[in-house]
């Protein structure tokens, strides 16, 4: 893309950068962002991780984690049966305790959306109202190595099948080679593919795959880029690349979201995904959210955990809190 | 959907107090002389918890007679025992002490937080681990003095008289004792009057380590005890950490005596934020620079120098961040800001803050609830501070930040150096060449670039100008306790 | 036949690269060991000392930030020039100090060699007195010595006047300090001759400022001057130096205690007039 090439006229970018929205003006904006000192960022994240959560706060935190989970299965071996089992778990996480809240969403490959929608039945809906959304990964997940036409078709099909949320991947190759405009235009196009017939949009989560972007400066730039292009959520990882979500990366993305909110008053969601397996870890994320952007972010349309095994650990901790005894893995269902 | 009982605010968390059951305090503590706890001949005094104003224990008070006894014990231990030991064996004692400190770390941290008022997360994660690290580091030097490059035939000085402040009671003890012992000296040390507790637990550790009697003597008391100690004719070395005023008096009183002197005194550090700084980390560094340990830090970044074009942005972010700081019970693991160490210090902070306001600076105080009892001061920022303001020149030694601006690197350097002090400074920028050039020009002993308030036993610490002389930490810190060594 | 009438030299102060008379207008007679009149030397006043401190402070920035290689060459250049004027200094010492020619030659040669020895330290003392520190964390951490600032010196008041002066000035300036030195009261002439060498060498004006006169009168003013960072009392052993050290404590000056005669060349003297600066910087790949 030439420096003067006009980019897709995304509303946020036009508002912030101005009508002259080009590869060059986008680049100037992204490269003008303040740098990150990795050591300081990691120290801050570690400090937030030392918060000690007890009693009522802990009980609330455990239930909040459940309410924020995108219960996920993204395997080549996924089947209808596996997805139905996942949905059952999403609706009723702990068979022995009906007071356990439901998760926010189930996250599946696009072709599994009809199955998930069917299995959810009347429970399918807005997690802010206690229902469960269907999130579909799209755009040639996880690599994103496909033509834009394939990516938008992938997206549109999932939306048509009833997906409420689309988790897209950015073109990391394009980003790392400095083709910010290309990445930007693709997000705008995928966002447009999220449009339903009634004019409403499926929520768009933009996966940065921070493990491949490698540096914190890249993560900050990609976060801004995704927000400017119209993402509703910025998400760390596909879960297929190591490292996936880390606390410092999530803290950094929350800082971007905080800055966007200070600038525009608009709230963007954040989704760390992959690698968060224990309640202890998840609580660190809640603390980080609360101390960085505020507690109002701790609701399903602003914060999610992309996870699978995390749920069971939270359930075990929850059982411990209810019964006063330590529980064991045979007292929660495997899926 | 079940009803979830949300706490009033999740950020309030729930109280998470560190257990005090680990701590077995005595009702009263004697002086630690010649390996034993003995009575003092002065009038005993109470040490109180600054967070509650409750008394913790009665502490013996050493008068000049006790100082004589302690110095005599140290001299005896030097002549008969310590100077005859091999370096390897001296080192082994220090290694033992390091390990015992690690084993009793939580107990020491709790005692420190109760007596000093600092948050448990600091005493637990910073002070006590550094104490162990300090002994461990200098333990390794004890049998390697010949390799230190400080001249041929390094020899101990003899008896070291050491006087330390109340802001890092245990850590300062380690900073003083570890290098002194490694170099082969014996020690008489006086902790601060308001914070003697942890040093007396350390005395128990010396007993457990079977450190030979008299090698370390800990005498508690106030200023007159310290004065008697540093002026004692039979001490060979004086090391003091504390205020510049007292340091000056000590420098005068030991003049001409031939006693080797190390002074680690006050500061008014500039923390310089350039417009290309990593801004979120800079804000953290500013917070850590001035609000760590309630600002009771001689190297605190108490003068924030911000490049004018990012001043508003930095101050806004800083206020936002300060609003999340949690002030309160030092023993609560979630406390960020503990109690001011004493009523006297609180009065001084209040007085200087009032002067700042009267002189026209704009005061902002973080919104936080101040407990009914105890000594507290909410994190405070002054903006519109001019270089001539009292709060830009005098050491406040509290959680009070003065914000000044600059336009060019040269102006930043000139303002940073425009103080009689020269202990530390901070630089925040993403431009390496500028950081190194500014670091070169700053007249301060410790420069933190893109970080602040980092300490390590391998890293020399100490000031230029009226912040004192000599270095503590590293090879340089060893030199302070050896004959002939010049640095 | 009548011989040619000699042209005597006027000995003045050396401040900021210039040769002023004392602002007080005072002079004192300098006599040979045998009591013969040699010259009228300037009797510096406290105001001359003050002016010298101002000159030294002004020169500090440039001299301390000159490269070590450059400072080393400048010091070596002093040795070269001194070598070239060796005979003049020998003659001066013979008449002023009553030395044998052999002893005077030895003193001049030792002084020249001292310059050479210290010149070599300029780019090495940092390596010997500084070091990297292995701190436990992701930080670059380096300790380096730096010049302490303006150093006031009482030159040795006994023994060889030239060697005494060189032995205290060279270790102070090699690291980048600037100095105000009070010369040997009884034999100040070679100090002023040395300043003529300095003025024609590459030493920037103000780096070395030389006062002649009474150290007992001037040194206490220097000890109390707030813009002096360090006080070398090398030659103050008989001058109530403890009081000067006490005065120096008002601004916490670094103080070097008196010695007898000219201090031997030592790294100690260089390092004693430096400050160790430790710089931390974060380290990370990402």
Radius of gyration of chain C using CA atoms only: 20 Å
Helix/strand/pairing class of chain A, anyone?
alpha/beta
Helix/strand order of chain C, N-terminal first? EEHHHHHEEEHEHEHEHEHE
User: Taking all residues together, what is the mean pLDDT of chain C?
Assistant: 96
Topology at a glance:
The complex is a heterotrimer of chains A (335), B (487) and C (286).
Chain A: H1 11-17, H2 23-31, H3 38-48, H4 55-67, E1 69-72, H5 80-91, E2 105-109, H6 113-120, E3 133-137, H7 148-160, E4 165-169, H8 172-176, H9 180-193, E5 203-207, H10 210-213, H11 216-229, E6 233-235, H12 247-264, E7 269-271, H13 279-292, E8 305-307, H14 310-323
Parallel strand pairs in A: 1-2, 1-8, 2-3, 3-4, 4-5, 5-6, 6-7
Helix pairs in contact in A: 3-12, 4-13, 4-14, 5-6, 7-9, 9-11, 11-12, 12-13
Chain B: E1 28-29, E2 31-33, E3 36-38, E4 45-48, E5 55-59, H1 64-81, H2 87-103, H3 105-116, H4 120-141, E6 159-163, H5 169-182, E7 186-190, H6 197-208, E8 216-218, H7 223-230, E9 237-241, H8 244-254, E10 260-264, E11 270-273, H9 279-291, E12 303-307, H10 311-322, H11 343-358, E13 362-365, E14 380-383, H12 390-393, E15 400-406, H13 409-417, E16 424-428, H14 432-441, E17 446-449, E18 468-469, H15 474-479
Parallel strand pairs in B: 1-5, 6-7, 6-9, 7-8, 9-10, 11-12, 11-16, 12-15, 14-15, 16-17
Antiparallel strand pairs in B: 2-3, 4-5, 10-18, 13-14
Chain C: E1 27-31, E2 37-42, H1 46-65, H2 68-84, H3 86-97, H4 101-121, H5 125-129, E3 131-132, E4 139-147, E5 150-154, H6 161-173, E6 178-182, H7 189-200, E7 208-211, H8 215-224, E8 230-232, H9 241-248, E9 254-256, H10 267-271, E10 274-282
Parallel strand pairs in C: 5-6, 5-8, 6-7, 8-9
Antiparallel strand pairs in C: 1-2, 3-4, 4-10
């Amino acid at each position: 893309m030439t420096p003067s090439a006009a980019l897709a006229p995304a509303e946020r970018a036009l508002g912030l950068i101005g009508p002259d929205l080009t590869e060059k003006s986008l680049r100037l904006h992204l490269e003008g962002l303040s740098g990150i000192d990795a050591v300081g960022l990691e120290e801050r994240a570690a400090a937030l991780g030392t918060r000690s959560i007890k009693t009522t706060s802990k009980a609330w935190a455990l239930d909040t984690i459940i309410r924020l989970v995108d219960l996920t299965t993204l395997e080549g071996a996924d089947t209808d049966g596996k997805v139905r089992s996942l949905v059952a778990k999403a609706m009723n996480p702990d068979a022995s305790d009906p007071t356990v809240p439901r998760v926010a969403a189930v996250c599946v490959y696009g072709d599994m959306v009809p199955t998930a929608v069917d299995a959810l039945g009347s429970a399918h809906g807005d997690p802010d109202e206690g229902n469960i959304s269907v999130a579909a990964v799209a755009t040639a997940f996880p690599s994103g190595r496909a033509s834009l036409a394939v990516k938008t078709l992938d997206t549109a099909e999932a939306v048509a099948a009833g997906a409420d949320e689309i988790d897209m991947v950015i073109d990391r190759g394009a980003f790392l080679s400095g083709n910010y405009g290309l990445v930007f235009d693709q997000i705008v196009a995928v966002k447009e593919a999220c449009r339903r017939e009634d004019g409403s949009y499926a929520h768009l989560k933009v996966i940065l795959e921070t493990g491949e972007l490698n540096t914190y400066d890249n993560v900050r730039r990609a976060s801004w880029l995704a927000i400017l292009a119209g993402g509703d959520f910025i998400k760390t990882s596909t879960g297929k690349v190591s490292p996936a979500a880390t606390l410092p990366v999530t803290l950094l993305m929350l800082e971007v979201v905080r800055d966007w909110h200070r600038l525009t008053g608009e709230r963007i969601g954040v989704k760390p995904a992959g690698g968060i397996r224990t309640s202890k870890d998840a609580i660190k994320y809640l603390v980080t959210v609360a101390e960085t952007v505020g507690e109002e972010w701790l609701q399903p349309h602003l914060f999610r955990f992309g996870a699978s095994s995390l749920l069971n650990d939270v359930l075990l901790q929850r059982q411990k809190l209810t019964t006063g005894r330590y529980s064991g893995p045979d007292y929660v269902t495997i899926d | 959907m079940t009803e979830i009982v949300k706490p009033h605010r999740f950020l309030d968390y729930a109280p998470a107090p560190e257990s005090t059951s680990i701590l077995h305090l005595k009702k009263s503590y004697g002086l630690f002389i010649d390996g034993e706890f003995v009575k003092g001949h002065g009038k005993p005094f109470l040490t109180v918890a600054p967070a509650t104003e409750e008394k913790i224990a009665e502490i013996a008070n050493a008068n000049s007679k006790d100082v004589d006894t302690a110095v005599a014990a140290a001299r005896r231990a030097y002549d008969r025992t310590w100077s005859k030991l091999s370096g390897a064996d001296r080192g082994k004692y220090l290694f033992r002490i390091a390990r015992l400190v690690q084993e009793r770390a939580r107990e020491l941290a709790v005692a420190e937080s109760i007596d000093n008022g600092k948050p448990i997360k600091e005493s637990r994660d910073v002070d006590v681990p550094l104490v162990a690290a300090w002994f461990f580091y200098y333990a390794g030097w004890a049998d390697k003095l010949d390799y230190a490059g400080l001249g041929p035939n390094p020899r101990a000085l003899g008896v070291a008289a050491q006087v330390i402040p109340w802001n890092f009671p245990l850590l300062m003890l380690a900073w003083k004792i570890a290098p002194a012992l490694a170099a082969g000296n014996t020690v008489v040390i006086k902790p601060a009057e308001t914070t003697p507790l942890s040093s007396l637990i350390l005395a128990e550790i010396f007993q457990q380590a079977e450190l030979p009697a008299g090698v370390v003597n800990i005498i508690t008391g106030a200023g007159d005890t310290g004065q008697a100690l540093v002026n004692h004719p039979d001490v060979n070395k004086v090391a003091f950490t504390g205020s510049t005023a007292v340091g000056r008096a000590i420098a005068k009183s030991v003049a001409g005596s031939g006693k080797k002197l190390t002074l680690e005194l006050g500061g008014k550090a500039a923390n310089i934020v350039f417009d290309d700084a990593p801004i979120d980390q800079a804000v953290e560094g500013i917070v850590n620079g001035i609000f760590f340990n309630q600002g009771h830090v001689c190297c605190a970044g108490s003068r924030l120098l911000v490049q004018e074009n990012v001043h508003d942005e930095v101050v806004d972010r800083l206020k936002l961040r300060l609003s999340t700081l949690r002030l309160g019970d030092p023993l609560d693991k979630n406390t960020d800001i503990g109690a001011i160490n004493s009523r006297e210090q609180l009065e001084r902070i209040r007085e200087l803050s009032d002067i700042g306001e009267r002189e026209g600076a704009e005061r902002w105080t973080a919104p936080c609830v101040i407990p009914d009892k105890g000594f507290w001061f909410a994190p405070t920022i002054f903006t519109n501070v001019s270089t001539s303001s009292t709060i830009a020149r005098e050491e406040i030694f509290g959680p009070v930040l003065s914000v000044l601006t600059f336009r060019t690197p040269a102006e930043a350097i000139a303002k940073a150096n425009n103080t009689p002090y020269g202990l530390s400074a901070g630089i925040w920028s993403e431009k390496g060449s500028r950081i190194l050039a500014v670091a070169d020009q700053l007249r301060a002993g410790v420069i933190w670039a893109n970080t602040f308030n980092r300490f390590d036993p391998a890293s020399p610490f100490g000031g230029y100008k009226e912040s004192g002389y000599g270095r503590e930490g590293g090879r340089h810190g060893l030199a302070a306790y050896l004959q002939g060594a010049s640095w | 036949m009548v011989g040619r009438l000699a042209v005597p030299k006027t000995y003045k102060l050396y401040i900021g690269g210039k040769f002023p008379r004392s602002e007080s207008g005072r002079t004192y007679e300098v006599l040979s060991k045998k009591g013969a009149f040699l010259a009228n030397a300037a009797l510096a006043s406290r105001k001359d000392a003050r002016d010298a401190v101002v000159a030294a402070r002004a020169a500090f920035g440039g001299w301390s930030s000159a490269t070590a290689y450059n400072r080393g060459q400048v010091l070596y250049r002093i040795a070269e020039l001194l070598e070239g004027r060796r005979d003049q200094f020998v003659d001066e010492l013979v008449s002023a100090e009553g030395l044998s020619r052999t002893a005077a030659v030895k003193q001049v040669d030792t002084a020249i060699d001292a310059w050479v020895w210290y010149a070599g330290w300029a780019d090495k003392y940092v390596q010997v007195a500084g070091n990297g520190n292995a701190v436990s964390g992701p930080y670059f951490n380096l300790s380096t010595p730096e010049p302490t600032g303006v150093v006031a010196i009482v030159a040795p008041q006994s023994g060889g006047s030239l060697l005494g002066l060189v032995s205290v000035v060279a270790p102070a300036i090699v690291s980048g300090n600037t100095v105000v030195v009070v010369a040997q009261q009884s034999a100040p002439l070679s100090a002023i001759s040395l300043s003529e060498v300095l003025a024609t060498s590459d030493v920037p004006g103000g780096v070395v400022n030389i006062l002649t006169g009474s150290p007992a009168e001037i040194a206490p003013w220097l000890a109390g001057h707030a813009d002096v960072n360090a006080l070398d009392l090398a030659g103050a052993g008989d001058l109530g130096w403890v009081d000067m050290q006490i005065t120096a404590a008002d601004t916490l000056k670094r103080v070097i205690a008196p010695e007898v005669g000219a201090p031997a060349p030592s790294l100690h003297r260089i390092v004693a007039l430096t400050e160790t600066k430790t710089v931390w910087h974060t380290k990370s790949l990402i």
